[in-house]
Design brief:
By secondary structure, the protein is α/β, with parallel strands linked by helices. It has one domain: P-loop containing nucleotide triphosphate hydrolases (Rossmann fold, 3-Layer(aba) Sandwich), CATH 3.40.50. It contains 7 helices and 4 strands. A 4-stranded parallel beta sheet has the order 2-3-1-4. Strand 2, helix 5 and strand 3 form a beta-alpha-beta unit. Helix 3 packs across helix 4. The chain starts with 9 loop residues before the first helix and ends with a helix. The mean pLDDT is 92.
Length: 159
Amino acid sequence: MLFSELGLQPEILKSLEKKGYTSPTEIQEKTIQAFTSGKHIVGQSQTGTGKTAAFVIPLLNAIDPKSKGAQVIVMCPTRELATQTEEEFFNLSRGLIGVKTCTVAGGMSVRRQQEKLQQGAQFIIATPGRLMDLIDKRIINLSMVSYVVLDEADRMFDM
C-alpha cells in the first residue's frame, strides 16, 4: 500500500515524499485506516517503525488549520520526547498553511510557552506536570480539543 491510497491531503503527501516516505509501515497503515474510520486506537510496535508518524499523519489530516485553538493534546512522559514529537509534527506539516504546535514541558520557559499558546496552536505537545499547571492557571483552554494521544502510554501509566 502507498500513502497516496490512504486518503491524505496532497500537502501531507508532499511532506511525506520530501522525507522519502512512499509506503507506510504496518503501524502507520493500520493507525491511519483505524483513525479515518473514527476508532479509538491503541498502537504498539518496535522502535524505529514510525509510531510517532503513525499518529501525527492522521491528526494533521483531521484538524482545521484555520482554527487557532488547541484541537490535539499529545502527552509525553519526558521533555525530550515532547521535543522530538513536536519536530515530527513540524516536518510533516511543512506544506500545511496555518498549522502550529506548542511544546509545554518543565525545564523550558513558561513565559515563552504562554506567548506561543496565545498566538494559537492546534497541537499541544506536553508533559503531564506542565500541562496540568497551565490548565490550572487557565492558560490552556481545552474546549476545542477533539483528540488526545498518550505517547509511550506504558511509561505514562507507570508514572
